[in-house]
Design goal:
By secondary structure, this protein is mainly α. It has one domain: Four Helix Bundle (Hemerythrin (Met), subunit A) (Up-down Bundle), CATH 1.20.120. 76% of the residues lie in helices and 0% in strands. The chain is built from 7 helices and no strands. Helix 4 packs antiparallel against helix 6. The radius of gyration is 26 Å and the shape is elongated.
Amino acid sequence: MIMGRIRPLLGVVLAVIATCLVACGGPAAKVPTTYTPEVLQQVELYTPGVAELRDRFPELESYIQDQDWVDVQSFIHGPMGELRTRVNRLAATLLPKDQPQAQALAKELYGHLERLDEAAANGQQVIAGQEYRNALDDFDSFLSLVPTFE
């Protein structure tokens, strides 16, 4: 009599276990290790905008050397104001293995620009120069993660 009651319950328990095993035991999602043509199109779309900002960095250096603090701040908030958006967009298109490093470098880059802005507000040329060089190094490291197109 007890066996008669346990049999339907045992069937339900086995069905639940089988469902869990099938749902959890599938192959792990594959992380792409190479760029697909679609992703490369996105990278190719976002790269010029970021590279353009990198190419304008020498302007910022000349403002720092001239101690032209108004232009330093205007440059950071003007042309470099798009930097965060463009870099984040490009970082999101990189391979999953490169994204954490790209995001960390981008965050460092933003921090250097914020500290550069603060140094300009206080007329601190030495600190401004250090933050400029650090920002440039992080920017170049970020760009080294981006695939190049021939």
